[in-house]
Write a structure and sequence with these properties.
This protein has about 60 residues and is mostly beta strands. It is about 0% helix and about 40% strand.
Length: about 60
């Protein structure tokens, strides 16, 4: 089982569980506020940011 660490959500300041094998640009969900978060850095410290909203492609 991968080791989990907890990092602060940049939206609500709640705790987000992150596995040790997390990858850059991986998307995670905050269990407290439901925000979609993106891993923006792995070193020197793990950083999360609110994921950008993707534009809908309505078949255009």
């Amino acid at each position: 089982m991968p080791v989990l660490t907890t990092i602060e959500c940049p939206v609500c300041w709640g705790g987000v569980n992150v596995s040790a094998d997390v990858m850059l640009s991986e998307l995670l969900d905050c269990g407290d506020c439901g925000a979609e978060l993106e891993v923006t850095a792995l070193s020197p410290a793990l950083q999360l940011a609110e994921a950008p909203m993707s534009a809908e492609d309505w078949g255009e």
